């Protein structure tokens, strides 16, 4: 795992200190690559490539980057791992197309493959997680590429006549051409999703390269010309494959085990110490179980726990690790330790990011890095095999109400929304005693409003958008802004899927997974120079999962059915069968308690007005509602706080 950056500019915009500038841009990424640094510059062509290296495979100087191909045509700055690079190397050798190898790094293999097969054919052969910048010296052509699922980041954009690119935005800030103008329209997307969705970035004119795509830009292209984007793989490709409706359970289980074993075997290759995150849930437990089955020594596993029982999974993880014979390390975190992470989040994530599970993710990465340089994780299981609770209850509601004419549902929704949540609460206080016990909820007004908003939806895709939206009308909060279209609102991205749950899983895989989950893990881990690998996101497993019939994912009201059956071969059912907990923190209580003064400063009406990004009234209203205890608005507030704290760091 590494960090890369660089720039392409005409002679008029070429800086005199290009080599020094490229070094300084790369130095901002030293956490991604503390072991080595390199710069390659061709002033005549107007290109600079820079790299920071975290040595994982081939620790020798033969893995130094930027790396030049054997024939001298290509120069690459590469971040990630090509897990099947030895197979690719063997194919090159047997075909007689291999160069004289200098080392055994996957970067060298990749360069040779690109030289022989070209960009798209090579990308389609690769199994891995990666982002890279490739310069073709013959054609004077820059290519940026990203892995299929979006595990590794890559930003790019024109800024004042210079084309910048980097693994993280902090590298852009070193270049004098960087403008750093906040895109107010994109800010509305952040408020809705809690993250900035691809292809957007928080700065105007800067973008994220989409997962499964590559972009090309020639030195002769005029400043401002958008790179040419090509998609070489998309989740839709997997969705379009035929479903094996007649597949029997035994065959499916055999194929899943073989595929996951192959993926884990490839991802356990490392020349440095390796371990795994373990929560004790289904996904991480099955990854660790199959790692241990392929290891001749105890696998190092890592868990953090909380003293608050509602947020603690450490005891379950310990039980799984003990059963499997792992070398287990756990850390029980105090609220003070967790909150100490918060001041560093704006620098770590580089743009506003408000998934509060970023805090425990940072803590477990710090814990693991004390002993290993590579850690495997179970991310992806929920999206592939139907694990999120919202899939079940949203599907039940839609099945019961979706066939009702929309005009009727919309009318009922309008009536329900006519009363505030507080008014509904007061009404239930008066008449609640006559209702059956199953209808007596805490804060019934909140639940009625949520149900009403779902009633107004016209399709499962609209239900999904409602469920994942934090602020439902974000453009109302940002004066003068218009909310842009995303992959979730562009109907061209709708998949031809029959099951409600399948449509939810697909939408998660093109949005929430790459733009939230994978960003959260990448930045938290790379912040401490820890490489993370995700065996469940091997694209061959993703394609396999989409060919499974729904009853192999969700059965008898329980998700991840097939994955569970595989786990039960290694771990007793009673150790892992329990309600899904998630990776949370008691954020609501913290905001009313130890974080209150910090939040109050960032949320002051005067400050919001002076900065000019937000309309303060709805924010102050949510804040007061939360402090009063009438409603839990912690996640709405956290979204604002993470932007405010990020903005404060930009001006420091």
Descriptive terms for the model:
652 residues, alpha+beta, Rossmann fold, six-stranded antiparallel beta sheet, 15% strand
Protein model, in words:
This protein is of the alpha+beta class and 652 residues long. It has 4 domains: 2-233, Aminohydrolase, N-terminal nucleophile (Ntn) domain (Glutamine Phosphoribosylpyrophosphate, subunit 1, domain 1); 237-380 and 534-576, Rossmann fold (3-Layer(aba) Sandwich), CATH 3.40.50; 389-506, no CATH class; 587-650, no CATH class. It is built from 28 helices and 17 strands. It has a 6-stranded antiparallel β-sheet, covered by helices on one side. Strands 4-5-6-7-11-12 form a 6-stranded antiparallel β-sheet, covered by helices on one side. Helix 9 (314-324) links the parallel strand 14 (300-306) and strand 15. Helix 19 (500-510) crosses helix 20. The protein starts with a strand and ends with a helix. The mean pLDDT is 92.
How big a fraction of the residues is strand? 5-15%
Number of domains: 4
Low-confidence spans: pLDDT under 50, at least 5 residues? none
CATH fold category name of the largest domain: Glutamine Phosphoribosylpyrophosphate, subunit 1, domain 1
Average predicted confidence as pLDDT: 92
